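Give me the fold.
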Amino acid sequence: MKKTILLGAMFLGAITFAQKVGGDRDVHGCIGSAGYTYSQLRNNCVRVFEQKIKLNEVSSDKSYSTMTAVIFSKNMKKAEIFIPDGNAKSIILDRQGKGKIWKSGSHIKDTYVLVPYKKTGYQIKKNDVVIYQ
């Protein structure tokens, strides 16, 4: 009887612990506390800070600065930027023509544009103001 009670208590404790660690999964199964967010282009959970293209916030009146990342589709026709805007955690930009400019659609309140910067970098503009590079 004592063994049954002890095993039952251990089992309940394990379930409670499992619910706390990783219990912040979003609707896509991404664990925010582990740094994961959902990528619409990759259709998978990613860590923004581990991406190849990372951009730093240009200027901020906050006491801290943020960074974002850019993920391109395989055909380079779409770019995903991780800037929270409303309910979205990322924004999909579409390439304009045959050039190297990607722009948000009209369904987004603000206009976001991704453009090449210097030789190997990029800039993100929000309403024609550079916010990341």
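Residues 123 and 133 are 4 Å apart (CA to CA).
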